[in-house]
Amino acid sequence: MTAILAAILLTQGPDPSPHSNATLLTSAKSAAPGEKVLVGVQIALDPGWHCYWQNPGDSGQATSIDWKLPKGWQVGPLMWPAPEALETGGFTIYGYEKQALLMAYVTPPKNAKPGKYRIQANPVWLICRETCVPAKQTVVKEIQIGANQPNPKDGPILAKARAELPQKATGWVVTAIRHGKGIDLKLQPKPGTTLAQGIRFLAADPETIAHSTPQTLTRDGETYVLGLTNSEFASKPPKRLRGLLIGAGTGFGIEIDVPITSAS
Amino acid sequence: MKSIAVLGVMALAAVSAFVLAKGTAPVEIGKAAPAFTLTDTNGKTRSLGDFAGKYVVLEWTNQDCPFVKKHYGSGSMQKTQKWATEKGVVWLSIISSAEGNQGFVTTADGKKLFKEKGFNSTALLLDPDGKVGKSYGARTTPHMYVIDPKGTLIYMGGIDDKPTPNPEDLKGAKNYVISALEEAMAGKEVSTPTSRPYGCSVKYKE
Asked: Of A157, A225, A262, B98, which is most buried with the most CB atoms under 10 A?
């Protein structure tokens, strides 16, 4: 038996997803035609290793997913949990340690016939510690079209992760003003929310802001002002500030998506 | 919170009044590139000043980084180095990995690496204490800088516009170093003076 196992291991070749492993989670075993289903690619990482957010920061590569769905099925935009800002040697990357669970809604067509359908995701990521290794995997799960039937194992995991995604800035007044040295992110949180030192803006688009420069928080009456520094590698001034506010008073993160206007 | 070095400053020449905060190691497009002296893998001392009157390309590298492997494994980097040096450009590959970190080479191993990988650079310089890398704000491998014959920085950032480690992404990629050199040599303004540097982090001394 061990000889057969050894032979199998020898013929497999190098691990395409070193120090990590991806699985596909589906919130439903069975869904009705036209009903969206929450799915997620969960990448488990070995201790000390990390993979990257949609803006990896000063180095690295954003995790990406190529979906292979049955004909007529749609997939919505990728939903990213808030990453951590990991700093070494004066540089900052945005990523995930221990695990990354990237979610999306898949929707079968309204005229989908009953039966079993194959949902496939091909995630690609870069896994790093002191060194970096490219990683990829193909993960597959079936969803049936029929009566609604939740997935008792994956469902709760996905529901919890969905609840912990960054929130929209509903009730906030947010503006971004460009001045000579950088961008002032002006925030009026919704009533009842106070912000404290330790909040930080993570840009979702590379080369919008300098990732490692400290962001100072000041008060201007009811408005908080977070001072951001321009990226030195932007070939044109960015027109939009997109990203997350994380840290003190922001829960799981607040989504920011505002145009950048010039100081009048 | 660790103290964070502010990386650099850039002033866009003609397009807009887009100005960045001053950094502790100012490296600006349109300003003089920082002077340096390093030893190459043949034991020869090289200073930026030695090359006054020539275009100089600085290429931060780490032969074990998957992004560098994309450019070297395909022969693309060596081809670009050859194209540039044949035009009289001085191309300096630089390794700022600290001893014990990925990419670090001794002079002897660096010399072997140069030969084995078919480098067509003018020289491979070793910066194990990372001083020169930090003075330029080099943050990834690869990370590219182009300096004109007057010693002015005219390009800094990524080698091209496809920030992945996939060799397939070399096809159709816009090489910013080639275009900066072509434009500058034709007396034109560099249309893309900076772009996102991408790659593995430079493995500086902790």
From this structure: B98
List CB contacts (< 8 A) between A122 and chain B. none
Judge contact between A263 and A178, C-beta under 8 A: yes
Give how far B80 is from chain A: nearest CA, Å: 22
In the three-class reduction of DSSP (H, G, I as helix; E, B as strand; rest coil), residue A260 is classed as strand
Q: What spatial distance separates the first Cα and last Cα of chain A, rounded to whole Å? A: 77
Which residue(s) pair with A107 in the sheet? A74
- The per-residue pLDDT for range A152-198, each reduced to its tens digit, is 999 999 999 999 999 999 999 999 999 887 999 999 999 888 898 88
CA distance A74 to chain B (A): 26
Task: Return the SS3 of B141.
Answer: strand
Asked if B15 has any chain A CB less than 8 Å from its own CB, the reply is yes
Give yes or no for B157 touching A (CB within 8 A): yes
C-alpha closest to that of B126 among B94, B154, B101: B94
Judge whether A84 and A95 are in contact, CB under 8 Å.
Answer: yes
Which residues partner with A254 through β-bridges? A167, A245
Give, for A100, the enclosing helix (H) or strand (E).
Answer: strand A99-107
Phi, psi values for residue A219, rounded to 5°: -110, 140
d(CA A20, CA A45): 4
Spatial separation of the C-alpha atoms in residues B137 and B118, rounded to whole Å: 27
| B chain contacts of residue A206, beta-carbon cutoff 8 Å | 163, 196
Q: Tell me the pLDDT tens digit for each residue of B51-92.
A: 999 999 999 999 999 999 999 999 999 999 999 999 999 999
Determine the residue type at A19.
H
Cβ within 8 Å, pair B2-A87: yes
**Sign of the torsion angle spanned by Cα atoms B119, B124, B126, B132:** negative
Beta strands in chain B (DSSP E): 37-40, 45-47, 56-60, 90-95, 123-126, 140-141, 143-147, 153-157, 200-201
Place of tokens 């799960």: A141
Output the CA torsion B155→B159→B163→B166 (10° steps): 180
CB A215 within 8 A of CB A228: yes
β-bridge pairing A132-136 and B56-60 = unpaired
Backbone angles phi, psi at A137, to 5 degrees: -160, 160
Cα–Cα distance, A189 to A66 (Å, whole number) = 36
Separation in Å, CA of B35 to nearest CA in chain A: 20
Q: How many C-beta atoms lie closer than 10 Å to residue A4's C-beta?
A: 8
For position A263, what pLDDT does the model report?
78
Q: Searching chain A, which residue's CA lies closest to the CA of residue B201? A: A59
Indicate the pTM of the whole model.
0.89
